[in-house]
Design goal:
Blueprint (H helix, E strand, L loop, with lengths): L6 E11 L4 E6 L4 H6 L2 E5 L5 E12 L2 E6 L5 H4 L6 E5 L13 H4 L3 E4 L4 E10 L4 E6 L4 E5 L5 E5 L4 E4 L9
Parallel strand pairs: 7-12
Antiparallel strand pairs: 1-2, 1-6, 2-5, 3-4, 3-6, 4-5, 7-8, 8-9, 9-10, 11-12
Length: 173
């Protein structure tokens, strides 16, 4: 596999689990449904090498995922994969509704207020119990923007922009 086109990064292998070649994965989004439906995964190494593997097992464990890969049945086989990014093929992921986006599509988008003030770009996203939070890095500061309907007015992937209406005091935090 040579091309990362059409791949969605969903997590990172942070360690081995047990002695039978299973891997512990930190999930970027905690999306159990997408991961559990996958039949294969693509691992991206630090040098950008892509390798596809058949997924043989998938379980949630203490906020992390534990996966098994075909032909990996020993901890020594699994150790070299630690540090690889775990990706899924976009074509195999569930269809999104009109107001849903993959995190990888949002990272790097510019965030502007509805009056045209540029706040910065989305540098990271994290999940809370009630909504996702966009970490927006500007030139002089960082903003935490809740991804809720009252704040997010428009996401335009084509122009690379997110337009928000800040709640009172949101930009003062």
């Amino acid at each position: 596999m040579r091309d990362s086109e059409g791949l969605i990064p969903v997590g990172k292998i942070i360690g081995t689990h047990g002695i039978k070649g299973q891997l512990k994965v930190y999930s970027y989004s905690g999306n159990f449904e997408s991961m559990s439906a996958a039949r294969s995964v693509v691992l991206k190494s630090a040098d950008g090498t892509l390798r596809e593997f058949t997924l043989t097992s998938f379980n949630a464990n203490s906020g992390k995922f534990i996966i098994g890969l075909q032909d990996f049945d020993d901890i020594d086989q699994a150790k070299p994969l630690v540090g690889n990014e775990l990706c899924l093929k976009r074509s195999l992921l569930p269809e999104l509704t009109d107001d849903e986006y993959y995190w990888s599509d949002l990272i790097g988008l510019q965030v502007l207020t509805d009056d045209g003030t540029l706040l910065g770009t989305i540098a990271d996203i994290f999940e809370t119990g009630s909504s996702d939070i966009y970490v927006v890095r500007g030139t002089s500061r960082e903003y935490l923007i809740p991804a809720i309907g009252d704040v997010i007015q428009r996401v335009d992937l084509v122009s690379g922009r997110v337009i928000i209406t800040p709640l009172d005091g949101l930009l003062d935090l």
